[in-house]
Amino acid sequence: MDAIPLSIVLRPGQLLLRWADGDSVLIAASLRSACRCADCRAAVLSGRARQADPEVRLQGAAPVGQYALRLLFNDGHDRGIYPWELLRQLSPLI
Length: 94
What we know:
By secondary structure, the chain is an alpha+beta fold. Helix content is 22%, strand content 35%.
C-alpha cells in the first residue's frame, strides 16, 4: 500500500500534505490540470485539454478508501480521484 499522509490541510489555493518523511504543497490550479477523471483524460486524448484557470480554488476534499482523495474545485469539477502516489509525484517534499 502507498504511504498515507499523516495530515491533510485544504486551503482555497493549495493542498498541504504531511508525510512521514516530509511535507508537500500542491497548488490548486496544478491539481485541477492533473485531473485523471474520464472527461479530463478524453480531453487530453482528443487534443482539447487546456490548463486550468490559475484562479481555480479548492472547495473540498473527501477520502476515497485508503488510497486517494476526491477533490472539489470552485469551477464545479468534482470527479477527479487523486491517489496518494500521484499526489506524491506532483510535488516534491519540502
